[in-house]
Amino acid sequence: MSNIIEIKDLHFRYGSSDEKESAEVLKGIDLNIKKGEFVAVLGHNGCGKSTLAKHLNAILIPTSGTVTVGGIDTKNEEKLFELRQFAGMVFQNPDNQIVSSIVEEDVAFALENLGVPYEEMRQRVDDSLKAVNMYDYRMHSPSQLSGGQKQRVAIAGVIAMRPECIILDEPTAMLDPQGRKEVLAAIHKMNREMGITIVLITHYMDEAADCDRVVVMDKGKVVLDNVPEKVFSQVETLKSIGLDVPQVTELAWELRKAGFDISPEIISEKECVEAIEKLFSKRSEK
User: How far is CA 216 from CA 61, 111, 224, 245, in A?
Assistant: First the structure.
């Protein structure tokens, strides 16, 4: 499987690179993401994860190092339009991305600007709204929608561009639990059924636990990068940089500290229940 994103020795500081007083936000990031992967990027506020996300869509340009997305160097201004068709971006606040007074018109907005023929545009808009389960709301005003529904409309607008990769910068941070559930279901469906590579910036442990891979950042650097089970088993490391772990993982960790023979790589409630049942069955056999 080929890399769709390649980041080599990425450094970034806001302001001029020769301004000593400006703090370096990213400090030598090396990261590759394969086509079709679903990758979560975790870290506390100020660790640089949102700054990293903005490099994947050329909203920010490296102070030094390179970011290549779909074979395009993000520093290449001549290919900026092509890059942003290849890699779409969804932000935290859906209100900042919705520009029309009717849902289907909003999803069609970028396609109209691209000059996509009407019949193709109609098909893309319908397909995109169906992909996020918002087709029945196509004639509604976005102002009538919940936060989760608005975010799904924003995602549909990106899907309509038919990108190979979508970067989502804390898309559920402003949503209630139901809205989070709706948006995450839509994101996983895109990845599973459409093969779109997903980079999800989040601070929710349960969201990261459902991804293929978790990248943890701290102070502008990548400190952990592995499958969720391996990353979340590093409980003490994560706590030392101000992060939590899924509740079931912490329970398993506490049980291990108490001397129980239980796997440190538990990340789901089902795994936790099965492991505890196994512990009880062993005790009853003695």
Answer: 21, 35, 5, 12
Of the CA atoms within 13 Å of residue 172, those in its CB half-sphere come to 21
Q: Pairing between strand 38-42 and 197-201?
A: parallel
Which run of H or of E encompasses 97?
none
As given in the structure block, the two tokens for residue 137 are 């709301």
Write out 191-219 in H/E/C secondary structure: HHHHCCEEEEECCCHHHHHCCCEEEEEEC
Instruction: For residues 58 and 67, give the distance between their C-alpha atoms in angstroms, rounded to a whole number.
Output: 9
Please give the Cα distance from 104 to 141 (Å, whole number). Answer: 9
CA distance 267 to 229: 6
pLDDT at 110: 87
Largest CA distance in the chain: 74
Q: What is the dihedral of CA 14, 3, 42, 226, to 10 degrees?
A: -140
Angle between helices 147-159 and 118-131 (to 10 degrees): 140
Task: Report in angstroms the alpha-carbon separations of 3 from 7, 53, 86, 197.
Answer: 10, 17, 14, 10
Over residues 30-44, the pLDDT tens digits come to: 999 999 999 999 998
Dihedral sign for Cα atoms in the order 48, 50, 54, 57: positive
* C-beta separation of 44 from 57 below 8 A: no
pTM of the predicted model, to two decimals?
0.89
- Tell me the H-state helices in 33-176: 49-55, 80-86, 103-114, 118-131, 147-159
Q: Which amino acid is at 258?
A: A
- For 34, half-sphere exposure in the C-beta direction (CA atoms, 13 angstrom radius) is 6
- The whole-number pLDDT of residue 114 equals 82
Are β-strands 24-34 and 87-90 bridged in parallel, bridged antiparallel, or unpaired? unpaired
Reported as a single tens digit per residue, the pLDDT across 216-273 is 999 999 999 999 999 999 999 999 999 989 889 999 899 888 888 889 899 988 888 8
